[in-house]
């Protein structure tokens, strides 16, 4: 067992892990941050996307030890400072960008990474960026609509929290 420490959603955390412990397992089981989902264990579905040092990563294929000293943001860290839904989360709600909700955390995290890289994406760019995220319920139309609406809101109020 090895001690791993990092900042998760702005808070310093540490825990004992086996060398083979995946980041998603550490987040879910070690820290009880269950918003990050495990859908496939093969990095195909994107339900486990989190941000590590600002980059979107599939936490089912990253060892917890690889995040030693890193800044990790999970879906729980996407809320507004007052605890209400963040801009992207709210857009998913308002534009019906979810059905069962299983893929939603990964979609929101991927959307946040996209909008950080490209604040004004086209519909085609959103669809291309989401190719690593699978939703089994929707046709992606409302997910794309939600991301474009969030992009517009974030451009209008750049100080708004993601």
What does this protein structure show overall?
The structure is a single chain. The chain is of the alpha+beta class and 162 residues long. It folds into two domains: 2-76, Ubiquitin-like (UB roll), CATH 3.10.20; 87-156, DNA polymerase, domain 1 (Orthogonal Bundle), CATH 1.10.150. The protein has helices spanning 23-30, 87-94, 104-117, 123-129, 141-156, and strands at residues 2-8, 11-17, 49-52, 55-58, 71-73. Strands 2-1-5-3-4 form a five-stranded mixed β-sheet, with helices on both faces. A hairpin with a 2-residue loop joins strand 1 (2-8) and strand 2. Helix 2 (87-94) crosses helix 5. The radius of gyration is 15 Å and the shape is globular. Keywords: 2Fe-2S, Iron, Iron-sulfur, Metal-binding, Oxidoreductase.
Helix and strand topology:
Elements: E1 2-8, E2 11-17, H1 23-30, E3 49-52, E4 55-58, E5 71-73, H2 87-94, H3 104-117, H4 123-129, H5 141-156
Parallel strand pairs: 1-5
Antiparallel strand pairs: 1-2, 3-4, 3-5
- State the CATH superfamily name of the largest domain: Beta-grasp domain
* Ends distance: 36 Å
Helicity, as a percent range: 25-40%
Structural class call reads: alpha+beta
Domain 2Fe-2S ferredoxin-type: 2-78
InterPro entries: 2Fe-2S-bd, 2Fe-2S-bd_dom_sf, 2Fe-2S_ferredoxin-like_sf, 2Fe-2S_ferredoxin-type, Beta-grasp_dom_sf, Diverse_Oxidoreductases
Pfam family, one: Fer2_2
Organism: Oceanicella actignis
